[in-house]
Every structure is written in C-alpha cells, then in structure tokens.
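Example 3.
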Amino acid sequence: MRELGLALPPPARPVASYLQTRVTSIGDGRSLIYVAGQLSREGDQVLSGRCQDQVSVEEATRRAELCALGVMSQIDAAAGLDTLVEMSQVLGFVLSAEGFGDQPKILNGASDLFVEVLGAAGKHTRVAIGAHALPFSATVEIAAVAVVRTG
Amino acid sequence: MRELGLALPPPARPVASYLQTRVTSIGDGRSLIYVAGQLSREGDQVLSGRCQDQVSVEEATRRAELCALGVMSQIDAAAGLDTLVEMSQVLGFVLSAEGFGDQPKILNGASDLFVEVLGAAGKHTRVAIGAHALPFSATVEIAAVAVVRTG
Amino acid sequence: MRELGLALPPPARPVASYLQTRVTSIGDGRSLIYVAGQLSREGDQVLSGRCQDQVSVEEATRRAELCALGVMSQIDAAAGLDTLVEMSQVLGFVLSAEGFGDQPKILNGASDLFVEVLGAAGKHTRVAIGAHALPFSATVEIAAVAVVRTG
C-alpha cells in the first residue's frame, strides 16, 4: 500500500448497535469474514450526494475507493489484511439519480483498488446497484464477504 | 423472549416459489443458515408505506422489529432458535422517500431486538439500504445469514 | 434443459474488473460459489427499462428468466452445473417505477426456472428488491450464492 501512496484509515465505528465484522470458521484454518456496509467518508465526515446530478462520476469513483479502503481497514482490524485469502463478494450501492446507469464505472474505483492492494486475492464477484437512498445520503456504500486464514 | 413480553410470530410462508431458509454444513457441527427477505407484517397483513412521508420513523422502527421477529421465527422453524451460534450478516432495506437518510435509526429496531433476544450471539454485521420499491410496498425488508449448531 | 427447450447462454464477461464467480471450499468436498450480479441481456445487448411504466410485468418476468439462465451459465462455466448441490441465496433486483410492488411476481420467473432446470437443488432463499437504478438501466439483476461439489 505504501508503494501506492495509500494508507488504511482507522476502522470506522458502527453508527448503531451492530458489528463491523463477523468471522466464522469454515475449516482448514480458514474463515469467512462478513464486513458491514462501509459508507463513503473522510475521517468522521460522511461524503454525501447523488450521482450524477449532485456528485460527478469522477468524484463518486473516488468515494468508492474510500469505501474499499474502509472495507480493507475493517478486515485488517479483525483478522489482519495479510491473512486475506480471497474476496468472495462485494455488494456495492451507489446513490443514483433517476436513469443513471454507470454504477459499474464508479464501483470500478473500489474493484481496481482491491486488486492493486491485494493482488489476485483481491479479485471478487460484484453486485452493483443504484440506490434511491442510503444512510446519511452517503454517495457510496460497500459491504463484503471474504475468506481469511485463521489457523 | 417471554421476559421481554415478546412471542415469535408463526413463520411466514413464501409469497412465491422459493424457500424461507437454506441450511448448509460448514463443518464442526455448524451450518450457515440463509434466511429469505422478511417483510414488515402483522399476521397476513403486509405493513406498507414509505418512510418518512407516509410512515413515521417511530412506526418504521417498530416495523423493523417485526421483520427481526420474522427472521428469528424462520431460524426457529428451520433449526431451533436455541441452536443459533451467531448472526453473520443482516441485509436491511427501508422503503425511503427521496433524500431520507435515517435508515440506520430504523434498522436499529431490528438490531437491538436481535441482541435483546439472543445476547452476544445476536450481534451481526449490517448492510443498511434505502429502497425505492419493495414487494407489496412493505416499509421494511430484512434478510440474514447466520450460523447454527446442527451437529 | 433440452426437454424444456432451453439452452444456457455463453457466460457473460464482467463489464469491469471483477470476477463472475468465486469458489470457496467449506469441507466435505463441497464449496460455496458466489455468482456476480447477472443483468437481463440477450447476447451482448442489455435489456433495459423500468417496470411497469416502460416494461410490462410479463416482459420483465421473461427478463428475470434470462438472468436465471445467466446465473446457471456462470455456475456451469466455473464448476459444472451438474455439481450443484443447492442454491443458497438469490438476490433479485427489479428496476421499478415508484409504487411498483410486484417484484415477487417478476422474480418468480427466475425462481421457477431454477427449480424447473435443477429440481429440488434449485430451490433457494430469496431477497426481492425494487431498485431505483441499475447498471445500464437493466430491467433485472440477479446474483446468487450456491453450494457445489468440488471433491
């Protein structure tokens, strides 16, 4: 990550009575890790607004990258990012104006960053959705399921 | 649950050709249980309407609690609620007016109830989304993945 | 499938930097397979438009069937459709006009097809959501988690 000029943010605390991660053994020293939805944020500030009428595609893409950093920060805090075996599933929601259909382009910000940082292990299946409303009107929310070594 | 003055509703039947639960062994006498989306309902009546212009935050929160009861009812019917090891992931969708961003507050109704009834095992990761449309215009829909003992 | 007069389409390539499937061993010669969101499409053409003001319920149902074929095509390419033990979870999103609540009817197109082709193994839990916006304004998007034999 240092080579990319990136640093993980401190893991965000849940905004409510839930956990940021849950780790479940699936045998052979490996576990599934479920990661709660990470909102686009810088520090404590949620970055809000709808794409494309309030927030540009370029800026929304940057915000998707911030969500990806948030996901990796949570995995790091729970299990250590170096124990990641593979990302299994990424659920990506983009706060979208009516008729906006470029969610894949925006979520590529996150997908590309997972692969840049984690290599082949960062590759993942993806579900890209345009949301009508998100918590605190965040521009992007990304949740994930991954596999980590815990043995 | 009796201490809380609560009772599980009878498990809702699917409104279509699908299952309410699927149980998959992950070894060590434990299984993942996938629970289908549970709509806000009382008896056979779906509680519909959008938050916050048609349904208040307070009432929507109560409806999220009903969804949580529905999820627990399905787990109980499939595996016995007392076999629950942990809730892994809760997917929560709130039918939302444009610009509404208090989905976390509403879904806390469900999150808090899981923890009240199930203790530490009820803690879970959460994905909170504002939906534009839901089946039968239900106010809340909640699906889950959990771990149960089956050995 | 031949008896049903159906053929699997060639598996769609991802529209971005992600995988269509991820396979993770859960012991006993079985694996979870995560399948990325499959858009309603014919060949390279995404079938777009919102239900029910731009696309009829009947046509949207047909498009949900195409998504189900897409999901099965991905499982077939990754692991062989004959290794499928069970569908665990289907996430279905229908591009919906405001107030439209018949997502279950539309997604039954997919649910019924899974069961017709795969028998009891095709039964699944389902999360049915009405989306405000989807990639390329696709009418339907369906993702899935399933269990396959890999031993």
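Helices of chain A lie at 57-79, 103-118. Residues 60 and 106 of chain A are 6 Å apart (CA to CA).
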